[in-house]
Design a protein that fits this description.
Blueprint (H helix, E strand, L loop, with lengths): L11 H19 L6 H7 L2 H8 L1
């Protein structure tokens, strides 16, 4: 439930997840076949996250 008075609350994790889902939907709709696991990882930038974590 949103707070009274117009104060907006943003969940940055949820917004990031929504953005990634949107990118995945766009990639899937542009593909002629099912996306491979490697393609999905590329869209979701899995390799970038792994390199940052190390």
């Amino acid at each position: 439930m949103a707070p009274v008075g117009g104060a907006a609350v943003q969940d940055h994790v949820a917004l990031a997840e929504i953005e990634l889902c949107g990118e995945l939907i766009i990639a899937a709709s542009a593909a002629r076949e099912r996306l491979s696991l490697e393609s999905i990882d590329e869209v979701l930038r899995v390799a970038e996250e792994r390199s940052r974590a190390q």
